Amino acid sequence: MALLRVTSPHAHGPASTQKVMQQVLLATVPGVIALIHFFGFGVLVNIAWAALLALAFESLALKLRGRELGFYLKDCSALVTAVLLGVALPPYSPWWLIAVGMASAILLAKHLYGGLGYNPFNPAMVGYVVLLISFPVQMTTWEAPRGVGEVPGLLDALRACFTPASFDGTTAATPLDVLKQNNSLLLENLWAAEPVFGRWAGIGWEWANIAFLAGGLWLLYRRIFTWHAPLAFLAVLALMAALFYDGGSSASGGSPLFHLLSGATMFGAFFIVTDPVTSAVSVRGRLVYGALAGLLVYLIRVWGNYPDAVAFAVLIMNFAAPFIDHYTQPRTYGHRKPAKRREES
Q1: Which residues contact 114 (CB under 8 A, 6 or more apart)?
Q2: d(Cα 12, Cα 90) in Å, to the nearest integer?
Q3: Which are the contacts of 299, defined by CB distance < 8 A and separation ≥ 6?
Q4: Residues 152 and 251 occupy one common structural domain
Q5: 150 and 24, same structural domain?
């Protein structure tokens, strides 16, 4: 009787790119709901318009490259990029801003290098940084969250996207920006003077970060990625904030809890840093990758020119990922570590 000869590795269940991407999309739902609650339907319009553009640009790139549309569109990678960029953009962004960001993400950051699996940089973060550098005014104009101002409705969100000149919203600085610009008030007084601050961080931001944390933990439970990069990212960011926290003076950079629940911290830790294509591969490499990304986020937030820094930190670490992998390769099973060569005299 002929026996079936199967070599390792042995997989107990099919884990296709499509299924992984679908679970990532599902994990973003709690964070998206929290953002919609506090900032209004502009978040939803951002995501919907970005998704349509992503599919259009993906189809265009595949057509120009002579690839089959149905096979590549079904992997949902373009939709993941659209959701990540749509979440990162300020609500009520104009249609052309989202279009430029999606074109940069899909055409330049992804297909210019050969498509999914070949891109060295995270496409969503490339699109975000291109917009932030090119259009700083639009990228730093955030609608006031619920509790500070009135949240616009769905019709207002559509008007803001497609007829920006007719939309007049109530904008407010982000908590990270308010803290960065502060040079006179103690943090206790700053919290009382600025309505954008909540209990631990900013109104809306703290709950959005908790929601993205819940989605990230679900992905960990589903074993979509390992804990090494996100835990190292959060641990080093919290450690840096604790080391340089002076108790709340006017020069303070903020407490560890403030940094963990502000800006794109949890979103970056579980949905950006964990990108399997652009991050380090080895276990030790993921620890180093996440730790250095967390360090860069704190350095740029406190001493850099931008209040939030997840996108810049991730792109810098994308560039360094091959170098990290080279020096953190695991020992081959059954072999000892190679002895250092002695220089011949």
Answers
A1: none
A2: 41
A3: 240, 309
A4: no
A5: yes
